[in-house]
Amino acid sequence: MTVLLVLVTFAIFLLIDYFRTRHVAAQPALQVSSSKRDSAVPRLQPALVGGFEVPENLRYHPGHTWALSESPNLVRVGMDDFASKLTGKIEHIMLPQRGQWIRQGQKLCTIHSDGCGVDMISPIEGTVSDINEAIVRNPKLALRDPYGEGWLLTVQAPDSKTSFRNLLGGALARWWTEESASRLQRHMPAFAGALAQDGGVAMDNLTNHIPDQEWLPLAKEFFLS
To answer: Alpha carbon of 87 to those of 42, 48, 59, 153, 172: distances in Å?
Structure first.
């Protein structure tokens, strides 16, 4: 019921955002030249919201994944900072195969942590163009640098404009992250201590503050899986 109410609220805000911006032409969040696309990971400047980094030039799925437009049809995808900190220690990541079709709002990958697996939701629809082999070899990259070297995969999205209209950006993304942080705090009273680092940044491994038996249902709630 909680997840349903949150999604209804999200849909209302998304509808408001659509009518506010329907006359504004959609622009890619960041353009990367074709010669550098495969060798360089875009460096993103984040805002800090509720203890979590939220780069302004990304669009976000409410299941805590992000999408970055690199060309009209090529989109880079990853997990956001909230997801990386809630996941904590990652044992391995199961990514889809190149050439596989993925759908927006459905399974993107499976994260395995402490013997449990939880699915993450795709923010975009299209064909998997490439996967981040580095993160397969070293899943810690997703925790250390979720918006840079910890990206998950790239997607050839023939209707990326439609997919991006269904995602959160700007004030809505910040609101969603703040709401997620507030809900997490209600689940774990020790969360205030997890924000004790300088500048109010959330600790890298929030799972240390969550009982083992509660982590999987909590992750599924926030990842909408």
So the answer is: 23, 19, 20, 18, 23
Number of domains making up the chain: 1
Separation of alpha carbons 203 and 193, rounded Å: 9
Classified as helix, coil or strand, 60 is strand
- Each residue's pLDDT tens digit, 64-120: 999 999 999 999 999 999 999 888 788 999 999 999 999 999 999 999 987 889 999
Range of the domain at 127: 2-32+45-171
pLDDT of residue 34: 40
> Is 221 among the domain residues?
no
Q: Name residues of the chain where pLDDT drops below 50.
A: 2-3, 5-6, 18-40, 196-198
CATH number of the domain enclosing 7: 2.40.50.100
- What number of helices (H) and strands (E) belong to the chain? 7, 11
Q: How far is CA 141 from CA 27, 97, 160, 170, in A?
A: 28, 20, 26, 25
Q: Indicate the DSSP class of residue 41.
A: P
For 113: left if phi > 0, alpha if psi spans -120 to 50, otherwise beta; the answer is beta
